[in-house]
Amino acid sequence: MNVLLINSSPQQQNASTYCVAKTLLEQWSQDNEVLLQEINVTTIPHVDSAYATALGSIHGEHDESVGSLALSNQLITSLDFADVVIITSPMHNYSVPSGLKNWIDHVVRVGKTFNVSSTGKHGLLRDKPVYILISSGGAFSSQEAYQPDFFTPYMKEVLATIGLNNVVFFSVEGTVGHSNEIHQKIEAVQTEIRTYLRTI
Ligand SMILES: Cc1cc2nc3c(=O)[nH]c(=O)nc-3n(C[C@H](O)[C@H](O)[C@H](O)COP(=O)(O)O)c2cc1C
Fold first, then answer.
1. Which cofactors is this protein said to need (predicted)?
2. 146 lies in a domain?
3. Pocket perturbation via mutation, ligand 1, pick of 6, 7, 40, 91 by most ligand atoms within 8 A of CB
4. Residue (of 195, 104, 192) closest to 141 by Cα position
5. 62 in a domain, yes or no?
């Protein structure tokens, strides 16, 4: 089982969502040999001029080894190779953090991961489960939510563009507080995940 973990938290392996990701990995490891590739997307370069030119070119003739096209190809290969994807991410300003947006800009690529026709955009990737683990300082999905959520609808839409329609979200919300309260919230989501995995 090839697992790709896209880590978009500035806290990396200390992130609350990373604890939750470990639960997924532990559960899968019980029945599978898990091969994990982990990518820290908080430090990858932005798409550059070579990339923008290539995406704007109608003839598709460009040197794939130049600038961020090479990185884009690597990231797409990793995504394509994976049987399952985990994305660990904080909510930043009601939406995805810039590192995750950066990764999206590299992998959502016309002619590579989606095509465009008169009927719209059509995904080219083999569909696979994508687990998105979100952490937020406040609530965004429950009845107590006091802020908008541009994260989950955006991720659903953008992943569907490249053919990934099997997207599941789990969230640790309200992380501003005492560490024991946060720990309890993480444990609750870990339990939710174990229960979910038994039902699929
Ligand atoms: C730049 C920035 C923007 C943030 N924006 C939001 C926000 O819009 N809503 C929210 O609930 N929390 C927001 N937070 C808080 C984080 O989502 C929260 O601390 C989260 O638990 C961090 O997760 P992690 O460190 O485990 O990855 C923001 C934090 C930062 C640093």
1. FMN
2. no
3. 91
4. 192
5. no
Residue 178 domain flag: yes
Name which residue sits closest to atom 2 of ligand 1, judged by CA.
92
How many angstroms separate the CA atoms of 172 and 11, rounded? 15
Q: What pairs with residue 122 in β-bridges?
A: 115
pTM: predicted TM-score of the whole model, two decimal places:
0.97
Count of structural domains within the chain: 1
Ligand 1 centroid to Cα of residue 65, in Å, is 36
Domain interval for residue 13: 2-53+68-139+161-198
Gap from CA of 91 to ligand 1 centroid (Å): 5
Q: Can you give the CATH number for the domain in which 186 is found?
A: 3.40.50.360
40 within domain boundaries: yes
CA distances from residue 123 to 58, 99, 172 in whole angstroms, order as listed: 19, 22, 30
Please give the chain's pLDDT, 200 residues, in tens: 999 999 999 999 999 999 999 999 999 999 999 999 999 999 999 999 999 988 887 666 778 888 899 999 999 999 999 999 999 999 999 999 999 999 999 999 999 999 999 999 999 999 999 999 999 999 999 888 999 999 999 999 999 999 999 999 999 999 998 999 999 999 999 999 999 999 99
